[in-house]
């Protein structure tokens, strides 16, 4: 599915998502996109101006960078 289509669907649906739940919805969408090989820069460009998506991208990057560091530490510990 094209990122343009996904962006249009998000725009159509986000108004129907309670404002208290948009953060979780944006987090879910960003996670889905990243796990399906979309690049963060592509997502940022496609959803420019959308605060929830921008925050979700930042959150995704922060949490997954931390997970990668933990995996590297576990790997290093196993080799000693």
Succession of helices and strands? HHHH
Contiguous runs where pLDDT drops below 50 for at least 5 residues: none
Supply the number of structural domains.
1
The percent range for helix content is over 70%
User: What is the makeup of the main sheet?
Assistant: none
What is the structural class?
mainly alpha
Principal-axes geometry comes out as: globular
Mean pLDDT: 88
Rounded to the nearest angstrom, the radius of gyration is 15 Å
Number of helices: 4
Number of strands: 0
Which assembly state applies to the chains in this document? single chain
Strand proportion, as a percent range, falls in under 5%
The termini sit apart by 45 Å
Distinctive features:
mainly alpha
Quick structural overview:
With 80 residues, this protein is mainly alpha-helical. Helix content is 76%, strand content 0%.
């Amino acid at each position: 599915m094209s990122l343009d289509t996904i962006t249009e669907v998000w725009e159509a649906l986000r108004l129907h998502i309670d404002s208290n739940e948009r953060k979780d919805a944006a987090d879910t969408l960003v996670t889905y996109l990243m796990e399906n090989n979309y690049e963060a820069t592509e997502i940022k460009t496609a959803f420019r101006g959308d605060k929830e998506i921008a925050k979700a991208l930042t959150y995704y990057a922060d949490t997954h960078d931390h997970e990668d560091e933990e995996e590297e530490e576990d790997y290093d510990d196993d080799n000693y």
